[in-house]
Amino acid sequence: MWIWLLYLVCAIAAGYQFTAFLAVLRHLLSREPRASSLPSVSILKPVHGRDPFFEQAIGSHTLIDYPNYEVLFAVNSPDNSAIPAVRALPGVSLYVSPHNPPNAKVGNLMELVRHARGEIYVVNDGDIRVPPDYLRRVTAPLSDPRIGLVTCLYRPVPLGLPATWEALGIATEFAPSTLVAPLVGINEFGLGSTLCFRAADLEAAGGFAPIADYLADDYQLARRLTRGLGKRACMSKLVVDTGIGYPSWRAVWRHQVRWARTIRVSRAEYAGLPVTHAGLWALLAALAGLWPLAATLAALRILTGFTAGFLLLRAPIAAALPLIPLWDLWAFAVWMAGLRGSEIVWRGHIMRLSPDGKLSPRP
Known about the structure:
Blueprint: H1 2-29, E1 41-46, H2 54-60, E2 69-75, H3 83-87, E3 93-96, H4 104-115, E4 120-123, E5 128-129, H5 134-139, E6 147-159, H6 161-183, E7 195-198, H7 199-204, H8 217-225, E8 232-245, H9 249-266, H10 278-287, H11 291-312, H12 323-339, E9 343-346, E10 349-353, E11 359-361
Helix pairs in contact: 1-6, 1-10, 1-11, 6-11, 6-12, 9-12, 10-11, 10-12
């Protein structure tokens, strides 16, 4: 009986990988919209601290080819380590936020929106490096009034060996899974790498304050700007860079478990995520002597990961083909750890997650 169950799970896993492959191809072959106008833009950058990629990332925002934009930074305290690097940039504004909600990033955004003058807001994380045509490309889909949010994938730039391992997962698992959402009609997706939306839509959605208690602020904001306003999200063809660096393997594990627990409390689909770990099911099929099935599943997994990670994102780590199925074993262990527990380590603090995804300090 169990062998037929294994066949069934492997078939579902193979079906998912094929769907993800189609989603990647669809994105690769899609046409990119052109802007009908160039509205004024405010880039809102909440920053927490300074890492080795920080100067490159924030400096790229001063080199954007766009006629009318401003870059606004916010920090939570006047002694934040990011302040000297920000002040060294030409033509930017820096604010110290007085807001102190559970999600400090949203507290910074609440301050920035008070000073922003653009018709369009672009929010991205402090470690995001952008190309000169960034604003022209991410604002273009908003020419369509049915679009409420534009987001984009990101290319990991690892700083050290532990970060290289996580980069493999971002490029070969996270990226294709993200593209499955628009393929199957899910319209409420948004990534912290870029959230581009109209200032008027943010106001209609209630501003940033309603999401100040949530850890997954990007998901919560996307949900309010799309489903809440009867609009949809758009995945831009632009890919930005993000620097990732960890002092140890333990730090990578903590980050992955935090991510898993965030997904668990944000989306009901969490329970079914192991079906996406094709490498795990290929290993079990091989142990059961089902070598053709194992080889087929592993090949599908490698094809999807390579196409997304190397051909779409152009992340060099995705060329390490034998490691792609091995990542799934790690991902399954992270999924198991994320099944239980409500504590996470975030920005150096131990926080507690409620069942609906809200943050609170650990008692």
